[in-house]
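Recall the central idea of this unit: under ordinary conditions, the amino acid sequence of a chain determines the structure it adopts. In this exercise we apply that idea directly, starting from the sequence alone.
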Amino acid sequence: MKRIRNPLEKKWEFETSQGYLADMFLQILELFHINPEDIYIPSFLDMSNIEFRTTKAKKDQINSVFRRYLDKNFIKIGHAVTELEGGDWYAIY
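Accordingly, the structure predicted from this sequence is:
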């Protein structure tokens, strides 16, 4: 049986330089009951990528929860919106 997609849902990508951030992001997606379409989390020296579908409003909410989750785990956000201290970064686009 084929799933009929909500026309408001877009495909989004989460990309990061660190696998542990991708693992944390998967936990946030699980809270929102979103199944990723594609997951690539390498074990060594490569960018991680997670593709998922949702509305823009829900994506913004997920990003907000993810940032709060990082703050609670003492991972400090640097000056740039998506850059973390120590050169780690993530982007949702």
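The mean pLDDT is 85.
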